Amino acid sequence: MSELNGDRSAWLRCYRCWSTRLEAQVHYDAIIRVDPDSGETAERVEEVQEAVVQCLDCMHDQPHLTIDEGRVVPISERWERMVAGTPWVASCTVTVDQDQVETCSGPEAADSLTYAAFGDPGTREFFTHVRFHKHDEELIVVHLLVELYARSAEEATDVLEEASRGTLELTSLAEESRPPAHAADEAH
């Protein structure tokens, strides 16, 4: 990681529009015991911190960045692919066990089906659109369009295969052009 800190400009920017105007939204949850005599916090039972870095110009989340010890840092397995790569759009199906799907109807269905198909990358890194799903006995087949960033078709395929939580069938994969860089004086 120390070699990356020498040139933060390589990764400390939006992967879509390359703006350096970023903000971190940190959500913190904790359960802390209170000392009954002093009223002071005594013991941290559980702490959860989640941070989302967002571009202020194009408003996209930056899944290649995270917060570590109060500092924005790149996620090593993602940042180069996302910053140096181009968008790839895949049409695919992922067949998962029905127990992996929390709900397949209502307002939560798309997120639930996406998470069942691709886990955290499906809901944090990829742009997904669930076209439809079908039940096949104990299985659910999720049909999706997925946009992800990669440096080649092979890398895009590898990323999808690694993220898949079931049997992945790739129907098509096409490279798209990168969105134009954001001008500093341009409004969102």
Write out key terms for the chains shown.
188 residues; alpha+beta; Alpha-Beta Plaits; 2 domains; four-stranded antiparallel sheet; two-stranded antiparallel ribbon; 8 strands; 20% helix; 42% strand; disordered N terminus
Word description of this protein:
The chain is α+β, with helices and mostly antiparallel strands and 188 residues long. It has 2 domains: 2-82, no CATH class; 85-175, Alpha-Beta Plaits (2-Layer Sandwich), CATH 3.30.70. The chain has 4 helices and 8 strands. It has helices at 2-5, 79-84, 109-124, 153-163, and strands at residues 22-34, 41-55, 65-68, 71-74, 86-97, 127-136, 139-150, 167-175. A 4-stranded antiparallel beta sheet has the order 6-7-5-8. The chain starts with a helix and ends in a 13-residue tail after the last strand.
Helix content: 10-25%
Going by helix content, strand content and strand pairing, the class is: alpha+beta
CATH level 1 name of the largest domain: Alpha Beta
Helix count, DSSP H or I runs of 4 or more residues: 4
In short:
This protein is α+β, with helices and mostly antiparallel strands.
Question: Can you lay out the helices and strands and say which pair or pack?
Answer:
Elements (H helix, E strand, L loop, with lengths): L1 H4 L16 E13 L6 E15 L9 E4 L2 E4 L4 H6 L1 E12 L11 H16 L2 E10 L2 E12 L2 H11 L3 E9 L13
Antiparallel strand pairs: 1-2, 3-4, 5-7, 5-8, 6-7
